[in-house]
Amino acid sequence: MQLGDEISLELNTRVRALEYLIQQKGLPGVVEMVPSYRALLVYYDPGVVGYDALCAALAELMSQVEHASLPPARTVELPCCYDDPELGFDLEAAATRLGLGARELVALHAGFAYHVFFIGFTPGLPYMMLPERLRIPRLDTPRTNLPPGSVGLGGGQCCIYSVESPGGYWIVGRTPLRLYDPEASDPVLLRPGDTVRFRPVDRAEFDRIAAAVQARSFRPVIQSEGASTAPSDTSPRKGCAGEARARTS
Amino acid sequence: MIRVLDGGPLTTVQDLGRAGHLRYGIPPSGPVDRDAFVIANRLCGNEDGAAGLECTYMGPRFSVERACAVAVTGAQAPVTVNGQPADRWTTIPLAAGDQVRVGVPRVGVFTYIAFSGGLDVPVVLGSRSTYVRGRLGGVEGRGLRKDDVLQLFDRPAPQARAVATPPPDTEAETVVRVVLGPQADRFTEDGVRTFLESTYEMLPQLDRMGARLKGPRIAHAQGHDIISDGTALGSVQVPGDGSPIVLLVDRQSTGGYTKLATVCSFDIGRLVQVKPGRTVRFTAVSVAEAHRLGAAHRTSLDTRVVGRGQPERQERP
Prior knowledge:
Number of strands of chain A: 13
Radius of gyration of chain A: 19 Å
Strand order of the largest sheet of chain A: 5-6-9-8-11
Low-confidence stretches of chain B: 311-317
Strand content of chain A: 15-25%
Number of domains of chain B: 2
Oligomer: heterodimer
Structural class of chain B: alpha+beta
Helix content of chain B: 10-25%
Strand order of the largest sheet of chain B: 7-6-9-4-1-12-11
CATH class of the largest domain in chain A: Mainly Beta
Number of domains of chain A: 2
């Protein structure tokens, strides 16, 4: 279902509200859903519900979206090391390209609250938009192997690579947290609708956190609004990603 | 217990896949040729979703350490037991110590091996399927290697030998049915006609993530990028070069290329068995027709296994 054709918080909020409505109603035949910027992909079992009947049920729910509630919001703090050329290897070049000093770029980047429009492409990768001043054309030649945790700027987007992948973003820093950890009971850290804030850390702290993450003793800072009422059906496991991970550590 | 003597280029443990995690970017995985996988299980007297092996191009070599049964389906790969040729699409009883080899297929790409009882690997996020890019499921989230040891669920081997009808030999062109959309309006009328009236050649990049095809350029009407949204099994993406890519079970959950059509799920298995260099044609059906065909397909699948080898009670020493 396409709800519009632009990238905006308002439209994305309606997409997530529609998904939440469908989850709460438990529409028969709906198998799973993938929210994105301005669309909701609904997988269904045609053996349970026909296409026309499902479309009618979805249209009915669409009419309720304006007044629908959203799952409780979370704010997730991601430590990020910017000022080490080994980690944020494009920081200086990106700052030059944008006509900023490196410190100014970091202040702008870490001072912004990023809305997670959705998770997609590779496991746990958040789609987030950059503040206007940091929008920058993608690199002409994509790099082949970017380490997970790399924080990149490209086009209007702020990307955090969740697995080792090729990419055309300017890498300005790296977070020691794992956005995707296949060995954790709940492998994905971020959720659609989360707010992400970057906290600048120096290399020593980056290394300390990375070691704690490796030892599974690090607990990410996650603020939940009304966490006790958090719906378990919006996550693959009960509870929040960080909490589940902390419990198993 | 199964001991892997040679894993082959990419042999992975699969069951029917993990649902519910696409919204976190984790694809369903599972067999790319679902029918062949399900039939292999039925030949062994298993549930449809028992974990078995999927082999890309060339199969593995393994030995079994206790009596069990296997069945090999999918691509036309030669099978030997202790060096002697064995039949595909039927139950193969094995004794302790038997060595099985699955070779390079003459026709087709993906071969399936089911084991009576099914493979006992840990369930990760609701499934035993391997997702190699995410290092998830199966054996340490990777393809099998020499010296890997796999356990089977303890279940007596089927006594009756079952036989399945293999799909018709597709030496000729494979015709695959699609439903047009969701972004068919982003192509010119000529572009859509080109897609439906031309033949497309399967490229060697065919893998569990997607099938790339080469053929007459499909013309876009208004640019090849969209605001990224969800991708379905069978989504036909057409990037700027005008060549179609059909997304499969290990696909990226979202993408920013225009999607001209969706291959019907019941034709995915036939599409992925098209060897690189061979050709495919696409033909459009309506949603209602696709559902009718899908229901008929499920029914026909039930008639393909004869003498389904349900395990009988057996005295074991």
